[in-house]
Every structure is written in C-alpha cells, then in structure tokens.
Amino acid sequence: MKPSFFLKTFLPVLSAIILVAGIAYSVWIEPTAAPPGNNVEAPINVGTSTQYKSGALGVGGLLAAYSGFWLNNNGQDVSGKVLTADANGFGSWQAQAAGGGGGGCYVSYSGGCLAGFTNKGSAGSWGYCAYNDTPATITIHFRPPGGGCHSGWSTGTLGEAFVCCQ
After folding, report:
1. Is the separation of the CB atoms in 122 and 108 below 8 Å?
2. Cα–Cα distance between 150 and 130 in angstroms, integer?
3. Nearest residue to 147 (alpha-carbon basis) of 59, 36, 75
4. In the beta sheet, which residues pair with residue 111?
5. Structure confidence by residue, pLDDT tens digits, 110-152
6. Predicted pLDDT of residue 100
7. Are strands 154-165 and 105-108 parallel, antiparallel or unpaired?
8. How many CB atoms lie within 10 A of CB 101?
9. Which residues of 125-135 are buried (b: 16+ CB within 10 A; e: fewer)?
10. CA distance 84 to 64
11. Which of 30, 28, 51, 49 is nearest to 39 (CA)?
12. pLDDT of 20 higher than 60
C-alpha cells in the first residue's frame, strides 16, 4: 500500500511543530520573584533610594534636579572654583577668572540684572515642555534657553533669558 499525501507532508510538519513547542516549554523557567526581586538589579531610574552608577550616564533630553545637584570632583576640594566647559562641551572645575569683584555671570529669567551686573545679551527664550500622561495627569518640565522638548511633548515659551555678568 502506497503512503498517502497526508502522511508524507502534513504529519512530519505537525510532528516538528509539536517537538519544537515541547522543547521551548521545557526550557522555560518561571522567575523566582516579581522584578526586581531575586533577579537582575533594577535600572537606575527605579525607586526612591540613593543610587550610584559607576559607568557613564547619557541623558538625551532635559536633565532636571528637583532637590539639589551635587558634582563630586573625586573628593578634591573645589572651593572657589567654577564649572567650565571647553569647546567640545567637556566640563571641569577651574579657578575663577580674575576680574573686578571676582567676576561671574548668571542667567536672569526676570528680564533684568541684579545691581552690579551688566546685561550681556539674550540667552534665548525659555519656557516649558508638557506631556499628557493620562487624561488626569500632565507632566511639565522646565525648558532652558536653547533647550528643546522630547518628540510628542508640547512646548511653551514664557519669556526671554539674559546673561548678566559683573
């Protein structure tokens, strides 16, 4: 008796599918706890505890510090120094440049400069970035001069910022 078309084609394919599914099922191991318990450590953005990252950290958007910002210079004393960027944007602590009264500049968002400071020109417009998380929740971030918003976020301009220097 000659084997039928069904036995020659369909049955081997079905057998292969069942074999692959069985192997995949037998290899699967259920996690021992809900993430991140007993598994890989949580990413740096999860939780409220203090976290330390030993490698580089890249931020593709606005970096906001809501309750303080601290830059450790590997334990070196940075008293009287200013954070300065070179032409490539790399920052380092440098001695403050000599100048009348110690010099120094700041960005004013109010349109005027404090007494003893001179308006050196516009730093650009500043405002906010907003995103509707849910119908009841809106996330709003500060947008500094020259800053932008993530894709999908709306932007608003609140004023013009000025550089004020001694």
Report:
1. no
2. 9
3. 59
4. none
5. 878 888 888 988 888 888 888 887 776 788 888 888 888 888 8
6. 44
7. antiparallel
8. 8
9. bbbebeeeeee
10. 19
11. 30
12. yes
Q: Which residue has the tokens 């958007």?
A: 61
The pLDDT of 8-14, averaged and rounded, is 81
CA distances to 12, 13, 113, 142 from 3, in Å: 13, 16, 94, 75
Sequence-ordered list of residues with C-beta below 8 angstroms from that of 148, at least 6 positions apart, any chain: 129, 155
Q: Which amino acid is at 148?
A: G
Q: How many CB atoms lie within 10 A of CB 164?
A: 21
Q: Would you list the domain boundaries of the chain?
A: 105-165
Residue 98 clears pLDDT 60, i.e. is over it:
no
What token pair was written down for 166? Answer: 């001694």
- Give residue-wise pLDDT tens across range 34-91: 766 776 666 666 666 677 777 777 777 766 666 566 666 677 777 767 777 777 777 7
Given phi > 0 = left and psi -120 to 50 = alpha, else beta, which region is 104? Answer: left
- Give backbone dihedrals phi and psi of 149, rounded to 5 degrees, phi first: -115, 155
| HSE (side-chain half, CA atoms, 13 Å) at 30 | 3
